[in-house]
Task: inverse folding
């Protein structure tokens, strides 16, 4: 069962990248139909046309690789549409949602009694991953959209400086990102195993549309947070693997493989950006008291009762809530 | 204005690699970079053909289209050049190029691509013609001196030709008529399509010629 669960997001990622990958495999002659016998070879070979070179660099033996055309189509058209929609779409949707629903308030206001939610290690792991992700998201968007949006504004030489800095930052911040990702996995996987209560949560969408402010009961993490956790683990993992392989050209894959990796990297990154925009919204202006969990690490007792009643009750039993004078101190800072 | 093109006659190429050597020597190309290479297909079996391949200076260059920093441009002669001052070494042009023309120096830290290098049709780069700066970045600028690319000039069997595309096509046509059998010029439909300008890579334009 767990094996199946582990496979599911992988299949999901593969499914999303499928059209572009399919285009890589399914080569069809372009608008320039071959006009002579010898040229036909170029298109009939399912793979690229490769010969032998006497130069001691075997990969130069590729004579023609028509797959570049499909990759160009992806990079110039589809990536921009996918990333553009997944970046602007959630922002627009959340803006509308905010106008309608506003900030989700704590039921009965703040009690002033603190409950420890995330310790130093939890928050270190979260912010290491978060900051690296945001930097890589911004630098990735700069490289993807900069030519269209920024070159007309700042000119070619300035943009080259920015793009080169972006390239290096994008490469180097992958290291803290992966470290943070591994920490997140180890620290929180225990509390993110799907359970029956998650179905109720999902059915009511966490009570987000309910006017009464009723929340389905949840443990340390509700079904939405579990969804974010697994999406970050698998999406982040896919980004890391595809990214590292792209950083080392020809170490593992040839040029066809790098084209596919770039497609996977771009599509997954766009999905992750959309997800994280939602995550940031609900963690800041979307919900009163939510930021405290990752800010000071200490949440208000009424917030805990509202959103994670079962977890709160556990904390009462184990002494994590409302008993430690030190926590009060911590919250007051 | 002439539209400069390369044409390699696969019936004539004897895989002597003189074009490769001439190119390396003329432009002081560092070790590991190959602006031009000779590829042998069906090596050692009947139907063996060798083709000298470099940047074909396409009508609608994929490299120029996908470049995130827009560092490519096309000269009035149709030669596709790029600015190494703008290039960030991302490798996108290498993914897009059908001919494997872009080359990268084995560079620095991990992620390690230096600034891209490719065949310039012996036309240098954006710097002033025949300056030391241009030479150090892009090699010699023979076109500015009224000469054609050295690889083609060096070719002993006249398999590799460089120059005005229409003249090359006429010479090649005459050869195929004399030989009595037709042979498409390698890479021409991919690089130049049916029209001389635009369209070779599908409906969407936006190459260096367009921007």
Result:
């Amino acid at each position: 069962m767990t094996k199946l669960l582990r496979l599911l997001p992988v299949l999901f990622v593969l499914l999303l990248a499928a059209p572009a990958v399919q285009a890589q495999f399914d080569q069809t002659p372009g608008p320039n139909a071959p006009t002579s016998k010898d040229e036909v070879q170029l298109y009939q070979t399912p793979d690229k046309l490769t010969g032998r070179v006497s130069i001691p660099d075997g990969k130069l033996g590729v004579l023609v690789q028509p797959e570049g055309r499909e990759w160009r189509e992806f990079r110039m058209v589809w990536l921009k549409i996918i990333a553009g929609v997944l970046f602007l779409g959630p922002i627009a949707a959340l803006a509308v949602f905010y106008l309608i629903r506003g900030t989700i308030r704590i039921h009965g206001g703040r009690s002033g009694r603190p409950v420890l939610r995330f310790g130093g290690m939890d928050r270190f792991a979260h912010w290491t991953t978060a900051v690296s992700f945001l930097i890589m998201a911004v630098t990735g968007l700069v490289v993807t959209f900069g030519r269209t949006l920024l070159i007309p504004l700042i000119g070619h030489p300035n943009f080259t400086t920015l793009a080169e800095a972006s390239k290096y930052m994008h490469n180097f911040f992958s290291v803290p990102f992966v470290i943070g990702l591994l920490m997140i996995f180890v620290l929180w996987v225990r509390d993110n195993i799907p359970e029956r209560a998650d179905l109720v949560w999902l059915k009511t969408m966490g009570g987000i549309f309910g006017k009464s402010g009723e929340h389905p009961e949840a443990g340390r993490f509700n079904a939405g947070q579990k969804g974010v956790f697994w999406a970050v683990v698998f999406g982040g993992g896919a980004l890391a693997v595809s990214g590292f392989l792209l950083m080392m050209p020809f170490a593992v894959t040839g040029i066809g493989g790098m084209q596919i990796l770039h497609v996977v990297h771009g599509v997954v990154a766009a999905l992750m950006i959309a997800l994280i925009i939602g995550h940031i919204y609900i963690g800041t202006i979307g919900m009163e008291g939510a930021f405290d969990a990752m800010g000071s690490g200490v949440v208000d007792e009424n917030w805990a009762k509202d959103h994670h009643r079962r977890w709160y009750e556990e904390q009462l039993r184990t002494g994590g809530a409302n008993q430690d004078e030190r926590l009060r101190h911590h919250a007051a800072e | 204005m002439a539209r400069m093109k390369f044409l390699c006659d696969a019936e004539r190429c004897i895989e002597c690699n003189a074009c490769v050597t001439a190119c390396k020597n003329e432009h002081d190309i560092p070790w590991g970079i190959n602006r031009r290479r000779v590829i042998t297909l069906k090596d050692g079996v009947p139907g063996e053909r060798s083709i000298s391949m470099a940047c074909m200076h396409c009508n609608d260059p994929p490299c120029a289209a996908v470049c995130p920093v827009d560092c490519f441009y096309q000269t009035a002669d149709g030669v596709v050049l790029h600015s190494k001052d703008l290039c960030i070494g991302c490798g996108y042009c290498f993914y897009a190029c059908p001919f494997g023309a872009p080359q990268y120096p084995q560079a620095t830290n991990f992620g390690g691509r230096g600034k891209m290098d490719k065949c310039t049709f012996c036309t240098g780069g954006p710097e002033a013609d025949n300056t030391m700066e241009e030479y150090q970045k892009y090699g010699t600028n023979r076109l500015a001196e009224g000469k054609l690319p050295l690889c083609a000039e060096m070719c002993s069997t006249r398999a590799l030709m460089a120059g005005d595309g229409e003249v090359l096509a006429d010479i090649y046509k005459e050869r195929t008529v004399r030989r009595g059998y037709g042979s498409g010029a390698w890479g021409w439909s991919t690089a130049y399509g049916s029209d001389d300008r635009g369209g070779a890579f599908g409906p969407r334009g936006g190459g260096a010629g367009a921007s």
